[in-house]
Amino acid sequence: MRDAIPNRRRLAGGLAVAAFLLVLTIVGVAAVPQVIGAKGSYVVLSSSMSPTIDAGDVVVVRDADPSAIETGDVITYRSPTDADRRVTHRVVAVQSWDGGPAFRTKGDANEEADAALVPAENVVGVVWFHIPLVGYLLQFASSTVGIALLVVVPAVLLVVTELRDLYRAATTVTDEERATETPPGQREE
């Protein structure tokens, strides 16, 4: 019975390490998708693709030849009306426009297709997969409070613990030093 407790602790420790590594891998892939061959990743800010992709999810996008994009594919593209905005919607029709393909898109949760056609040059890529809820963590980590809690506070704690350890090392008397000390009441001559 006594052997079961250390085994449970080892198992719990192993599971904790595995869970930590899994979370670290997921966040790493979302933050730096190029490590797995993806073109980029984007935090989904709206529920227009629900229930397929929800707000707070991260979409990981692969590069795609626009001529290979078909109806039903989910693409991420630069908005035709705001080049700084990225949109992830499903292709509902492929049309010819200005000598190349253009895409009619629609969010799965939306009643109607998007008003503007998406020209091929606006396509960032095809959604390869999505990671639920990680977008909330990434948004928090990039906020002022998130940076303070995830970077500044741990850095300060590291410095404080290192200074404490240095102080202890400088003020602690070792056994060897004790052996060479003169006992109280005796003088060295």
Q: Any descriptors?
A:
single chain, 189 residues, alpha+beta, Umud Fragment, subunit A, 7-stranded antiparallel β-sheet, 4 helices, 7 strands
Task: Provide a short characterization of the protein structure.
This protein has helices at 4-31, 134-141, 144-171, 175-180, and strands at residues 40-43, 58-62, 74-78, 86-97, 100-106, 118-119, 123-131. The chain has 189 residues and is an alpha+beta fold.
Structure description:
- Helix content is 37%, strand content 23%.
- The protein is of the alpha+beta class.
- Among the domains are: 36-132, Umud Fragment, subunit A, CATH 2.10.109; 143-173.
- A seven-stranded antiparallel beta sheet has the order 1-2-7-3-4-5-6, with helices on one face.
- The longest helix has 28 residues, at 4-31.
- The N and C termini lie far apart (62 Å).
Roughly what percent helix?
25-40%
Structural class: alpha+beta
For the report, how would you describe the main beta sheet? 7 strands, antiparallel
CATH class category name of the domain at 36-132: Mainly Beta
Mean pLDDT: 89
The order of strands across the largest sheet is 1-2-7-3-4-5-6
Q: What would CATH call the architecture of the domain at 36-132?
A: Ribbon
Query: Overall 3D geometry?
Result: elongated
Spans of at least 5 consecutive residues whose pLDDT stays below 50 are: none
Radius of gyration: 28 Å
Strand residue percentage: 15-25%
Question: In CATH terms, what is the fold-level topology of the domain at 36-132?
Answer: Umud Fragment, subunit A
In quaternary terms, these chains amount to single chain
Distance between the termini: 62 Å
* Helix-strand topology string: HEEEEEEEHHH
Q: Please name the fourth-level CATH homologous superfamily of the domain at 36-132.
A: Umud Fragment, subunit A
How many helix segments? Answer: 4
Number of separate strands: 7
